[in-house]
Fold 4-hydroxyphenylpyruvate dioxygenase.
Amino acid sequence: MQYWKCSKAGITLPFTDKKEPDCKFVIAESLPHQGRNQVDTFLEQHTAAGIQHVALYTKNIVSAAHTMAKAGVHFFSPPPAYYTEVGKRQEIEEAGHDPQMLSEHGILLDTDLQQDPSSQRECSENRRYLLQVFTKPLFAEDTFFLELIERRGATGFGEGNIRALWRSVQAYMENERRDSQGETVQSAQQ
């Protein structure tokens, strides 16, 4: 088990004969200068702290996301610029992935920030990274979702992807708010 606070490097709880812990907890807190956000929504709708999402490990995230999408699961899409930014595009390609393929499924890639710089090589086999994708909320409360994660040696939780996910969730919440306000206005006019 591992406990991480988003703003800290984390605390590792030792396990015998294992390189990685079986479970990680990430504690998210509302940022006052960000305005209303998904943490505030979660706390408001649940009136207390709780579990926002559960991550499921997969050995092939592209296949898993494709299969789930075909079964009707909806995934968040990061802003399109995520895949076209020069640094991110290069990071994806150096890891041996096609930015267009990841974009089609909303899959994020993050190289391990804890990686030893002396071990980094141009060869994608030696790069430590993770791939992750997040479903849209599963319930009416808009607060619980699933994450698919494929680890290629990375031990973090996608620190570099948090901003992209945050923007994606914020945009979704804003669209939902606008849609519900539009329905309210239409009902009032009838």
